[in-house]
């Protein structure tokens, strides 16, 4: 299914919502936390307490989106979003696809953060 304005892939949507993510110019003052749609108050608080990690969270989400699109490239559902954003309505529906997206995202974000911590790139790794 080709990408249309109403059916944008996750990584295109994240690039448009998070221009600093696309350019690599990340802010370390917590401003990026306000740019992530769909976060709960608690998630925004965690994000604000660890601003140095947000770029790696975004990196992991982008990696998950790319992998999801690669794995489902020839399928009817191919990891596309009906509108730009991370908080997608269909991810609130209990389905195998939703479970896959959450598992893949969790693993990719964990991997990106662990790699950054191991390299000493995140100051508040413990």
From TrEMBL:
Keywords: Developmental protein, Disulfide bond, Extracellular matrix, Secreted, Wnt signaling pathway
GO molecular function, one term: frizzled binding
GO biological process, one term: cell fate commitment
Compartments it resides in: Secreted, Extracellular space, Extracellular matrix
InterPro entries registered for this protein in UniProt: Wnt
Regions that span the bilayer: none
Domain of life: Eukaryota
A GO cellular component annotation in the UniProt record: extracellular space
Function text: Ligand for members of the frizzled family of seven transmembrane receptors.
Family as reported in the entry's similarity comment: Belongs to the Wnt family.
UniProt protein name: Protein Wnt
Protein species of origin: Parascaris equorum
């Amino acid at each position: 299914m080709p990408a249309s304005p109403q059916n944008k892939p996750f990584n295109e949507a994240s690039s448009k919502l998070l221009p600093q993510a696309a350019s690599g110019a990340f802010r370390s003052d917590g401003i990026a936390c306000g740019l992530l749609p769909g976060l709960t108050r608690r998630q925004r608080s965690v994000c604000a307490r660890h601003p140095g990690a947000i770029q790696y969270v975004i990196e992991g989400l982008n990696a998950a989106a790319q992998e999801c699109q690669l794995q489902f490239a020839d399928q009817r559902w191919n990891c596309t979003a009906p509108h730009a954003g991370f908080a997608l309505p269909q991810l609130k529906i209990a389905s195998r696809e939703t479970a896959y997206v959450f598992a893949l995202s969790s693993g990719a974000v964990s991997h990106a953060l662990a790699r950054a911590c191991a390299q000493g790139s995140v100051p508040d790794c413990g």
